[in-house]
């Protein structure tokens, strides 16, 4: 990383900034004022990015800490500065307000917006108990418990202060109608995370709404503590409206201006109801309740739709919010009921409101998260097929490329711009490959060594804990001699994601005898590393996790110790980064076409690791005819695909057999033709890094936002837009949008 000149020249004090809402740390006052003034300028268009979860732990991407360490700044004589430094070097590194891919994608997206200097701010909720923490017991399976964390001690996170009473937290009043015409106002505090760019020259503020205040109603605190609390439907509904209902009050207090509200999934869609209510009152006056007609509501909705951009992330039915009409009437405004009757009706289930359907209806654009997902979504929502476009997901390359790999790229002259321009990997020439190959191989070996060391240390810890706690080690290998544990250099396959049934984590264990025979026949050892969480209420998902644990010993014994399967509990972003850079291949085997995108495999590809995957989600675009990895399993057309998650429709036998057919050639390539294997790794750098990064993805979103940007920012967006077009043949359309944004 190139250290900011101003930071080195003027000292750490220049990293303190402030305004009427408090004092912050990480960027200069000049940078802070530039960003904030743009967001409050009523004459400038900005974007509000709304997400139920945002994953941005400072332990995997930490530009401020990197600058401080490289400059040798660890303490200060000024107490305030010293407090900030202590927090950055010794504070907790977790912000556990995410459950998995959706939240981590949101965090990666905002990091790229910051790197690209795009005027965006984000709004989410702060959950005092996070998602959940995971223990794993070999006999019981997953044991979930509340996460304990301290937002006030977490670097990059700041509680906003009241401008009139600086010693007091900023409090906003959020309206909830609860079946009445007059709203109940609920108080909430506001935290701000600074998502700071790699060069510390810009940031995106993420505002986290904190409802866990003393004296809050029980229905509020029940819903506010834990992300995706599913103890009751009413809690689920309340969480959604606590996000959507807080957006306008927060904008009013901050005086932020926005022409675009980007709904990252439908979770915050209740903001649409408040916007329509606001529009009706503005148009018809205070007595709008007596005057309004259905036609007035439709007209108001059409105006509101011009502000909404909607990204749909899943074809899985459970991912779409539906609530019974009766239940919602008890927590709603009578006008909201009328709006929902018109805009959120569900043709399949008439007695429920479908919030995905409402978000589909009220927007100026809809995008899926891969080309295949676009086709599936059009099949699911044919009424809106003409509006649904593809913007394929990416990942933040600066977050997910390991330090070892990054050091390699820094030493290659033609890749000197890789941090700001992921497209530079397209220029890898045969001469560059000769230079890069041994360095990449060495870095990969070191990342693999670190991962294997981490796993073996974990096995040792679990074995020692067995005599201290009631938890049985989750891994069979904890019970065998240490000389039979994992070894670096052994072919290592990684699988880590949410344990949902359609993701079929246990697919490759469908026929352990056949899998073992493949390893024994050729004397090929393989490490299988699994990680991930099942939602606490997802009993089928927890059963799949338990099957992974139950099959470890059989695989080890049948394969004569060649097949070693380990489950890593407590999956988080730090474990994810170790895995995607330390494994030799990434496994992904959902039932096609239920994986909308999948981003874990992209993170592996960022490090050169090939994927072994079903042709679903992003892999349809990232496979490149086999140059970057392998495919297996069902590959039929979307029109004939079965979207059911029923156990008898998951194609276990067929797709597992296809994996076993493929595995020998993969292992032979790794063990006997290492040059061919490295060629696939280099192809991932050349073909997939330029496409599956959030810089490119952010550029595609910016072209939907119609923002007026500084010329140098617009030039950067235009260059990134040329890397890849998710929506085929859309280049002319994008040019038109850019011209409209810059008349």
UniProtKB/TrEMBL annotation:
UniProt GO MF annotations: glycogen phosphorylase activity; pyridoxal phosphate binding
Cofactor: pyridoxal 5'-phosphate
Catalytic activity: [(1->4)-alpha-D-glucosyl](n) + phosphate = [(1->4)-alpha-D-glucosyl](n-1) + alpha-D-glucose 1-phosphate
UniProt record, GO biological process: carbohydrate metabolic process
Record EC number: 2.4.1.1
PROSITE patterns: PHOSPHORYLASE
SUPFAM superfamilies in alphabetical order: UDP-Glycosyltransferase/glycogen phosphorylase
Listed InterPro entries: Agluc_phsphrylas (IPR011834), Glyco_trans_35 (IPR000811), Glycogen/Maltodextrin_Phosph (IPR052182), Pyridoxal_P_attach_site (IPR035090)
PTM sites of type N6-(pyridoxal phosphate)lysine: 603
Sorted UniProt keywords: Carbohydrate metabolism, Glycosyltransferase, Pyridoxal phosphate, Transferase
One matching Pfam family: Phosphorylase
Lineage top rank: taxon: Bacteria
Family designation: Belongs to the glycogen phosphorylase family.
Chain's role: Phosphorylase is an important allosteric enzyme in carbohydrate metabolism. Enzymes from different sources differ in their regulatory mechanisms and in their natural substrates. However, all known phosphorylases share catalytic and structural properties.
Protein known as: glycogen phosphorylase
Organism of derivation: Desulfobulbus oligotrophicus
């Amino acid at each position: 990383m190139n250290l900011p000149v101003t930071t080195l020249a003027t000292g750490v004090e220049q990293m303190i900034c402030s305004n009427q809402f408090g004092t912050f740390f990480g960027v200069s006052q000049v940078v802070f004022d530039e960003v904030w003034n743009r967001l409050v300028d009523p004459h400038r268009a900005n974007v509000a990015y709304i997400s139920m979860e945002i994953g941005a732990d400072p332990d995997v991407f930490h530009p401020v800490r990197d600058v401080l360490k490289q400059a040798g700044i660890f303490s200060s004589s000024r107490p305030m500065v010293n407090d900030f430094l202590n927090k950055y070097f010794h504070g907790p590194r977790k912000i556990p307000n995410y459950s998995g891919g959706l939240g981590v994608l949101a965090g990666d997206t905002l990091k790229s917006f910051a790197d690209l200097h795009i005027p965006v701010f984000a709004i989410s909720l702060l959950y005092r108990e996070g998602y959940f923490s995971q223990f794993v017991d070999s006999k019981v399976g997953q044991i979930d418990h509340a996460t304990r964390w301290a937002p006030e001690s977490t670097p990059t996170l700041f509680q906003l202060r009241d401008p009139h009473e600086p010693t007091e937290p900023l409090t906003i009043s959020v309206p909830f109608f609860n079946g009445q015409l007059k709203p109940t106002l609920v108080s909430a505090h506001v935290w701000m995370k600074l998502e700071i760019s790699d060069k510390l020259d810009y940031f995106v503020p993420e505002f986290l709404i904190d409802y866990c205040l003393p004296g809050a109603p029980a229905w509020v605190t029940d819903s506010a503590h834990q992300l995706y609390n599913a103890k009751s439907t009413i809690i689920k509904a309340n969480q959604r409206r606590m996000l959507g209902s807080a957006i306008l009050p927060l904008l009013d207090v901050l005086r932020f201006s926005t022409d675009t509200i980007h709904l990252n999934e439908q979770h915050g869609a209740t903001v649409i109801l408040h916007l329509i209510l606001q529009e009706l009152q503005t148009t018809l006056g205070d007595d709008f309740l007596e005057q309004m007609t259905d036609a007035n509501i439709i007209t108001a909705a059409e105006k509101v739709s011009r502000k909404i951009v909607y990204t749909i992330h899943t074809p899985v039915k459970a991912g779409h919010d539906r609530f019974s009409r009766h239940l919602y009437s008890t927590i709603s405004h009578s006008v909201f009921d009328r709006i929902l009757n018109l805009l959120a009706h569900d043709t399949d289930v008439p007695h429920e409101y479908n919030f995905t359907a409402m978000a589909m209806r009220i927007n100026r654009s809809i995008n899926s998260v891969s080309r295949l997902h676009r086709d599936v979504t059009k099949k699911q929502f044919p009424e809106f097929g003409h509006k649904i476009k593809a913007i394929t997901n990416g990942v933040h390359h600066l977050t997910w490329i390991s330090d070892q790999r990054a050091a390699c790229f820094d030493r290659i002259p033609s890749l000197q711009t890789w941090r700001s321009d992921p497209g530079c990997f397209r220029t890898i020439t045969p001469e560059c490959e000769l230079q890069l190959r041994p360095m990449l191989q060495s870095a990969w070996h070191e990342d693999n060594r670190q991962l294997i060391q981490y796993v073996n240390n974990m096995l040792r810890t679990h074995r020692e804990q067995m005599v201290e706690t009631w938890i049985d080690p989750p891994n069979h290998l904890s019970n065998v001699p240490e000389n039979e544990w994992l070894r670096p250099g052994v072919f290592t396959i990684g699988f880590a994601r949410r344990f949902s049934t359609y993701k079929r984590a246990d697919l490759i264990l469908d026929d352990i005898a056949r899998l073992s025979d493949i390893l024994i026949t050729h004397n090929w050892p393989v490490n299988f590393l699994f990680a991930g969480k099942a939602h606490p209420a997802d009993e089928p998902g927890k059963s799949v996790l338990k099957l992974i644990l139950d099959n470890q010993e059989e695989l080890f014994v049948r394969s004569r110790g060649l097949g070693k399967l380990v489950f890593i509990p407590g999956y988080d972003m730090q474990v994810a980064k170790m895995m995607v850079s330390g494994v030799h291949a990434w496994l992904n085997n959902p039932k096609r076409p239920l994986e909308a995108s999948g981003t874990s495999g992209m993170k592996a590809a960022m490090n050169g690791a090939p994927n072994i995957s079903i042709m679903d989600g992003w892999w349809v675009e990232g496979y490149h005819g086999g140059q970057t990895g392998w495919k297996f399993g069902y590959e039929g057309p979307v029109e004939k695909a079965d979207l059911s998650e029923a156990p008898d429709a998951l194609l276990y036998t067929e797709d597992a057999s296809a994996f076993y057919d493929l595995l020998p050639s993969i292992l032979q390539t790794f063990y006997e033709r290492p040059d061919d294997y490295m060629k696939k790794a280099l192809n991932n750098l050349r073909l997939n890094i330029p496409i599956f990064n959030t810089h490119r993805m952010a550029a595609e979103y910016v072209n939907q936002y119609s923002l007026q940007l500084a010329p140098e920012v617009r030039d950067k967006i235009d260059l990134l837009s040329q890397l890849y077009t998710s929506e085929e043949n859309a280049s002319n359309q994008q040019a038109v949008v850019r011209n409209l944004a810059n008349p």
